[in-house]
Design a protein that fits this description.
two-stranded antiparallel sheet, single chain, 185 residues, mainly alpha, 7 helices, transmembrane helix, 2 strands
């Protein structure tokens, strides 16, 4: 039912975040810059040199990703044998990201991928990511997701809220459920 009052289309839609607004533009600019730089290098040298550079990036990136994956699997296996959790994952994640950037065709992504393979850069980025994650967790505990998961509620069709807890009969010692009759066709 409408009230007859005009509504503006901007008030009906939720506001887009800055990331959703500018990320497609940034990706498009990055792709155009990569293509332009490849054509400049091809003009200065030859198309064969550009092809060999791109092929070397793909081969080096696949070797780096394979080694990082092996190292991550080995750390996980050792941690499971110890009964703990794997450690040192952020550096390995940046190695994996560097390898993936090397595999993407383009010279700028290759340079960024090579920079991510430098251990001091990995350590600095790991510390920054850890601080950022801790800050977000603190902010969410103050009033974000912490309140949302505080109490489970069931909404009835009439709009009333029924509070309670879910009791599962799957644990040993509980009363077993009655078996369902087999389905027939």
């Amino acid at each position: 039912m409408t009230t007859g009052a005009p509504t503006s289309p901007s008030s009906a839609r939720p506001r887009r975040s800055r990331l959703r607004t500018f990320l497609p533009l940034g990706v498009a600019a990055w792709v155009v810059l990569e293509i332009w730089l490849l054509t400049v290098v091809a003009g200065a040298t030859s198309g064969l040199v550009v092809f060999l550079l791109l092929l070397a990036g793909v081969v080096l990136g696949s070797v780096v990703v394979k080694r990082a994956g092996r190292r991550a699997f080995q750390n996980l296996n050792e941690a499971l044998q110890r009964g703990g959790s794997p450690s040192g994952g952020s550096g390995n994640g940046f190695v994996m990201l560097g390898g993936l950037l090397l595999m993407i065709p383009g010279l700028i992504s290759d340079v960024v991928g090579l920079v991510l393979l430098i251990p001091p850069v990995q350590k600095a980025l790991g510390k920054r990511a850890e601080r950022s994650l801790e800050r977000r967790l603190r902010d969410s505990a103050r009033g974000g997701f912490g309140d949302a998961f505080q109490q489970a509620r069931i909404h009835r069709p009439d709009g009333k809220i029924v509070q309670g807890e879910v009791i599962r009969h799957d644990e040993p010692g509980d009363t077993p459920r009655e078996p369902r009759p087999p389905l027939t066709r």
